[in-house]
Design a protein that fits this description.
about 230 residues; alpha/beta
């Protein structure tokens, strides 16, 4: 029951960058970075790839992961990934037994390190939180330099507070949620409908590792960062 299992959720369809989950990045399929990260962590007991795509199945198995056949209705552009999380937990529980900690390692974050993963798992277990997110400092803040536009294209601050902030340095620190790693209790994922339905904690990840590949520009940026690290 106390086992920790990692999952990589990788659909076959991607409009932003077709075939991105197995597209070679520095001579390795993109999804392999997440699989390797999970396999290297001493805190993770097993690794599964949830997918609807036969090519991803082949790469995942070759890379050392087990595979969950994701239903087509959970693999569309509009399918909430939370439902795929629930499906994966239920599938593993039915096939191998219950486990305590769920970890999601998105294939689109190849710069995530084992230290990031272990930090998220440890933070979750040492707190009373239901889920641990990974976040990175934001360059923008809703009370300082983020605006909305009305129907007539007039701009106003996204978040108006009583104390007016006129310098970035004076704005309270804000963070972006990254896709590097999520760690949660299985009970929370199965009973909730989203990240903030329970108590959330977070680990901070530097910007150079907080890369989420959605299109070719993101892919090239990740490639550049990886090349510079070697």
């Amino acid at each position: 029951m106390s086992k920790t299992i990692a999952f990589v959720f990788a659909r076959g369809g991607s409009k932003g960058l077709p075939g991105k989950n197995i597209k070679p990045l520095c001579n390795k399929p993109l999804i392999q970075y997440s699989i390797d990260c999970a396999q290297t962590s001493e805190l993770i007991d097993d690794i599964y790839v949830s997918t609807d795509d036969v090519d991803i199945v082949h790469v995942a198995r070759k890379g050392g992961a087990k595979v969950i056949d994701r239903p087509k209705e959970l693999a569309t552009d509009d399918s909430p990934e939370w439902l795929s999380w629930q499906h994966a937990i239920t599938w593993v529980t039915q096939h191998t037994g219950a486990f305590e900690t769920f970890v999601s390692l998105p294939a689109t974050s190849p710069l995530t390190t084992v230290a990031d993963v272990n930090s998220a798992i440890s933070r979750l277990k040492q707190s009373d939180a239901d889920i641990c997110l990974s976040v990175t400092p934001s360059n923008h803040h809703p009370s300082f330099n983020m605006v909305t536009l009305d129907d007539e294209q007039y701009a106003s601050l996204m978040f108006n507070s009583d104390s007016k902030v006129i310098r970035r340095q004076d704005a309270p620190k804000a963070y972006n949620i990254t896709t590097c790693v999520y760690a949660a209790t299985t009970d929370f994922v199965l009973s909730a409908k989203g990240l903030f339905d329970g108590k959330a904690t977070a680990i901070e990840v530097p910007r150079e590792r907080a890369v989420d590949i959605d299109d070719i520009i993101d892919f090239k940026f990740a490639e550049l960062l990886m090349t510079e690290q070697t």
